[in-house]
Specification:
The complex is a heterotrimer of chains A (about 220), B (about 250) and C (about 270).
Chain A: H1 2-10, H2 12-44, H3 49-64, H4 67-80, H5 87-113, H6 116-124, H7 129-165, H8 173-184, H9 187-215
Helix pairs in contact in A: 1-9, 2-3, 2-5, 2-7, 2-8, 3-5, 4-5, 5-7, 6-7, 7-9, 8-9
Chain B: E1 11-20, E2 23-33, E3 38-42, H1 49-56, E4 64-69, E5 72-73, H2 81-86, E6 88-91, H3 103-113, H4 119-132, H5 148-160, E7 166-170, H6 178-193, E8 197-201, H7 205-211, E9 214-219, E10 222-227, H8 229-234, H9 239-249
Chain C: H1 2-5, H2 18-51, H3 56-71, H4 74-84, H5 87-96, H6 108-134, H7 138-146, H8 151-166, H9 168-181, H10 193-201, H11 213-246, H12 259-264
Helix pairs in contact in C: 2-3, 2-6, 2-9, 2-10, 3-6, 4-6, 5-6, 6-8, 6-9, 7-8, 9-11, 10-11
Classes of the chains: A mainly alpha (about 220), B alpha/beta (about 250), C mainly alpha (about 270).
Chain lengths: ~220, ~250, ~270
Amino acid sequence: MGALFDVLTDNFDELAGGLWVTLRLVGASFAIALVVGTLVAALRIAPSKWLQRLGGVYVETFRNVPLLVLLFISFAGLRRAGVPISNWAAGIGSLGLYTAAYVAEVLRSGVFAVSRGQIEAALSLGFSYGATLRRIVLPQAFRTVIAPLASITIAMIKNSAIVGVSLLALPDLLKEARIVQSRTFQTDEAFFWAAVGYLLITASATIAFRRLERRFAIRR
Amino acid sequence: MANSDAGGPLVELRAVRKSFGDNLVLDDIDLAIAPGEAVVVAGPSGSGKSTMLRCINGLEEIDSGSVRFDGRPVDPRSKSIGPMRAEIGMVFQQFNLFPHKTVLENITLAPVKVKGIEPAAAQARARELLETVGIPEKAGASPADLSGGQQQRVAIARALAMDPKLMLFDEPTSALDPEMIREVLDVMRELARGGMTMVVVTHEMGFAREVCDRIVFIDDGRIVEQGPPAEFFAAAKSPRAREFVDKIIHH
Amino acid sequence: MGYLFDPDNWEWLVTANNARFIFEGFLVNLQLALIAMVFALAVGLALALARISRSPVLRFVAATWIDVWRNLPLIFIILYLALALPESWRDAYENNAPQLLPDVLQTGRVFAALLALVLYNSAVLAEIMRAGIQSLDRGQGEAAAALGLSYRQRMRFVILPQGLRRMVPATVSQLITLNKDTTLVSIIAIQEVMRHGRIVTGFNFFGGVQAPVLQVFIFIGLLFVATNLALSRLSRRLEIRERARTGTTVEPIGGLEDQVATAQAR
């Protein structure tokens, strides 16, 4: 038992630094995923067939390609092609664009989950189409979207661990745990603390989303 | 041995209490049902009628008191509950047919798996029962292809296939369109005429007046009044029951 | 853009054995995914049954086990097992791996990879199955109980056939995720498509044209997109057929990352 805590105290700076890198990576990627995901969702429900198709191609591509392949393309691939992309940019960009495909699908199905009756009721009350979308559809869509967004976020936190061990070598939590392991050979201990770190992050995200859900819950 | 042969009640509830959380749904229920008797349980919605019915075959666990079937205690936690339920047929408001099985498979499942009857014999019996409930041509159909009334008749056939000593009906026509109610009630009337012991929770007072031997009126988890239907409808003693009857007659 | 579509940069695809080498690697990924899926389904069902069993102790243990494994990053589990598994286990796998597996999949390292994939995916699938079972109408179990069927019989003849059918689309989505996840085993030096891709982009491998990284990995990415698209089409068709068969609007059960895939199937 003593060894377990020694590993934590002896390597606290590395592990805490790794946790911080993971948090920044996740935060920045999440922002990109939300912005790009919203844009792609807008394409998917746009009035033009071509725009819809464009959004569809984005979703199908980024959802079906392995994240590791994206990381190879965006870092080693672009660099060999002469684009001086940094490892942070490649990592955040890949994780963000990958997750955006899932966000887009969730947003789209959220909008469709708002019943026709709601829209017709709003229009019959004299709301304009824009006002209906803004005041009736989107607020309801947002609420139904919270739960699936939570599971996407959890998945993204876990996926962030791929960034550090790939060629990009960002010093995130898993990477740091591996460094500690290779120096101390205390595999169980090093990985135990990394696991605690990841479970802490996913648990806090779950709790945060649950709060959000409770605040915006609709009684039906 | 079968208590019924000795002239005792087939079902006996004594001082049964049951609550869901803080909500007391059954408050000191005493009830005995003799073999061959057809009893209708009536009362306002939420009065505890269905819960009482579900205590008889152990789908609900009681908090205190005792439930006996055919002289044996009904205990949902004991191993004996399976074989005991096999002797008690139940028909639900929502039919609860198994959607992944055909009509015939719905009827033969329990006879084959619980009683160990040969599949061929079980099928022959199932076809007979479908004949009795008036839809012999639907044996190979999927429940989803049947109307509500047909589904409920299959559900009755499914229960009868176990040769039960007692049939429980939990609002069997409440989920049906008006034009299908009659076809289900007709089947139930025939059953009662044939001497089946039945406990029926229903709002169909026409059926109660015409078919049953006794009406048990429940309000707020208590048995307020019981007696032969003619008496109940003509001169209910308690104010609650009179109010209930008045509402139905003026309906 | 000029660089991306410059024919010179795609010449590698037709020279030497590059394309074939990539395909061979990709086949390893597909095999890994299939093997892991079979085991994960079996283990996942056992976990799901434990998760909804009548024993509170068993329920608690199963719930904890499932929650830990499915909330850890898969790459974390892979790395940890690769480092921590006793030598003897790996040797045992190497000596007993079925001969019909390709040579790459008979090495001891693969055992850690497979174990990790099964641990993670069985936990995810157990949750999907639990949701599928518990989404069934209560009346189904009650009707079966009222007929006298025992707990086991109820599960076997009434609950599981319906619950498991509901999770087919979610399982296919999970297979897609699993398919993508097999690339992670390249981190522990298993020779699959990512490794083959890197070899091809190394200097003058096979004596042909040196392949540019960007194009090679775009090609590999397209292989995954094509395979996974085919899988999701299949899933959609299965779901539509199922809905037509039971005549009900069955709510499909979503898996973790791919909850969206089912939403999309409407």
